[in-house]
Design brief:
Layout: E1 9-12, H1 27-30, H2 39-49, E2 56-58, H3 71-81, E3 86-91, H4 98-105, E4 111-115, H5 121-127, H6 133-146, E5 153-160, H7 166-178, E6 182-187, E7 209-210, H8 214-217, E8 218-221, E9 226-228, E10 239-242, H9 248-252, H10 255-265, H11 273-276, E11 281-282
Parallel strand pairs: 1-2, 1-8, 2-3, 3-4, 4-5, 5-6
Antiparallel strand pairs: 7-11, 8-9, 9-10
Helix pairs in contact: 2-3, 4-6
The structure holds S-adenosylmethionine (SAM) and iron/sulfur cluster (2 copies).
Length: 285
């Protein structure tokens, strides 16, 4: 795949917070200062997004999107200005009220992913300790009713971190089917060694390729306007520009972005340390 002239997919967070501290996620160790995207930056972003012929917009990034009281209004503005882009949202489903569900229904969401990391209470509480399983499972049932005639692809996501019995995945899959949702069991990623308590034990300084093509088609924007090279960069060590100062296109073509791309894809150079530690990086002959 060649570098796109402009990003095809945008991941953006309007707020950097989460209400959970999942055992498999780096969030709990990051201690971020709360950050909400300013109205002026939000409007600048929307004005630029509507000029780009984007394939998909992903309005969350390493956060819990529904923690932000303004989230639905922001998605309404986004949808009105980018009527043809696919919209993908992922949530832990703990904060979905019936009002929010009904608003979401009107917004032509392409994909709604629900992170529910345990079927049994014991597993759920171990994996998602801040949340209440009974509340989330009630929300799943409500959501199924509200979205019963919609085209939105809804899926329940569980992560196989090697500590969950196969029976539990099967139980969740059966529940998903009953609710008219899809089910996805994903492999555990340590987010380029950003999860403290579990690791993929991956390191390779010969990598020269990204399995997900992220640097070539996808841009990652934080609530303060910083653009990071990749969503795996939970510590924000690879900032390639800031949207308050420059446009999306200027940042996409910036010296900083291109230098990181060159280091990743040029076989003669050593890839950014982030990629050397990332299970999604590969060596291509
Ligand atoms: C970091 S979450 C942010 C959105 C929201 N808070 C949620 O949990 O769905 C984004 C996606 O990453 C997935 N995820 C979280 N931790 C993971 C891990 N260690 N390995 C692979 N995927 C993970 C979640 O299931 C979710 O689909
Ligand atoms: S996986 Fe999602 S819900 Fe869990 S801590 Fe990470 S961002 Fe929050
Ligand atoms: S950190 Fe991983 S996912 Fe991100 S660009 Fe590098 S190889 Fe791809």
């Amino acid at each position: 795949m060649e570098l796109s002239e402009s990003p095809q997919i945008i991941e953006v967070q309007f707020c950097n917070l989460c209400n959970s501290c999942c055992s498999i996620c780096p969030y709990k160790d990051m201690k971020y200062k709360p950050e909400y995207m300013s109205t002026s930056l939000f409007l600048k972003l929307i004005n630029e997004l509507k000029m780009l012929n984007l394939k998909r917009i992903i309005p969350y990034l390493n956060n819990e999107p529904f923690i932000d009281k303004n989230y639905i209004s922001q998605i309404k503005v986004l949808r009105a200005n980018c009527p043809n882009a696919e919209l993908e949202i992922s949530t832990n489903a703990s904060l979905l009220t019936e009002d929010i569900m009904n608003e979401l229904l009107k917004l032509n969401i392409t994909e709604l992913r629900l992170s529910v990391f345990g079927y049994y209470k014991k597993t759920y509480n171990k994996m998602m300790p801040n949340l209440t399983k009974s509340v989330v499972f009630k929300n799943l049932h409500k959501l199924s009713k509200v979205f019963k005639d919609s085209k939105t692809k809804i899926s329940i996501v569980m992560i196989d971190n090697g500590q969950i019995n196969e029976i539990e995945f099967q139980k969740m899959k059966a529940l998903a089917t009953k609710l008219n949702f899809e089910f996805n069991k994903w492999g555990f990623l340590d987010r380029a060694k950003n999860v403290k308590n579990q690791t993929n034990n991956f390191y390779n300084d010969k990598v020269n390729f990204c399995e997900q093509f992220r640097p070539l088609e996808r841009m990652h924007i934080l609530a303060d306007g910083d653009v990071v090279f990749c969503c795996q960069d939970w510590k924000h060590q690879y900032v390639v520009g800031n949207l308050n100062k420059n446009s999306i296109i200027e940042i996409w073509n910036s010296k900083e972005y291109n230098s990181l791309r060159k280091h990743l894809y040029d076989k003669k150079l050593v890839a950014p340390d982030l990629c050397c530690n990332c299970k999604l990086a590969q060596v291509k002959e």
